Amino acid sequence: xxxxxxxxxxxxxxxxxxxxxxxxxxxxxxxxxxxxxxxxxxxxxxxxxxxxxxxxxxxxxxxxxxxxxxxxxxxxxxxxxxxxxxxxxxxxxxxxxxxxxxxxxxxxxxxxxxxxxxxxxxxxxxxxxxxxxxxxxxxxxxxxxxxxxxxxxxxxxxxxxxxxxxxxxxxxxxxxxxxxxxxxxxxxxxxxxxxxxxxxxxxxxxxxxxxxxxxxxxxxxxxxxxxxxxxxxxxxxxxxxxxxxxxxxxxxxxxxxxxx
Length: 260
Description:
The protein is α/β, with parallel strands linked by helices. The protein folds into two domains: about 1-200, 2-enoyl-CoA Hydratase, Chain A, domain 1 (Alpha-Beta Complex), CATH 3.90.226.10; about 205-250, Orthogonal Bundle (Lyase 2-enoyl-coa Hydratase, Chain  A, domain 2). Helices cover about 45% and strands about 15% of the residues. It has ten helices and ten strands. The radius of gyration is 19 Å and the shape is globular. It starts with a strand and ends in a 10-residue tail after the last helix.
């Protein structure tokens, strides 16, 4: 299935991994409202067979940010509503039905970094670079970056990126937390699909707890977090699939953790 500037396909024998590709390669996959709304629609209507998703970008870049050629003049009220539309769309990525892995290469800039930060795992190849040029262009992040990016790298580093236009390369980006995996050039998608295939075999309730509940626990005071954790642990352990997996481990039918 393809929409304008976005391609969707199912991978795996069970059709349980969704590959979502930005296809505005000629524009370095710069984001416009149509593309953001297409992402929202895909995650809202994800096929029930899907257990994990991968987002990547066509061509040499993951996403070079907001398409400034389509930037419209808005008054303050219109600007708020426009930003909130982006928030709602990227909420569908972060708090959608499945874990999402971003396969990064080339530019991960501005809105592209906001999109990547809404994903749960980020795999970068050696060509990846990160920047937030909004500060030097007289604007401010509006797609959730002010919330999500500091949680990855801290307020001070994001402030530096926006005040100075600092660009992080792939190695330094992985070091500060913009990606969890760093792989050779041209292999980010393969690694992301490998991870998605592995994640798709997890118990659905465990994946849900990790993508929906864990981030909220991190935002709670400790006493509330402990209580939320206890309730989520009880719910997950009560699922029939969880009981079978524990039984398989105790009976020696499941693989033990090995040193990698």
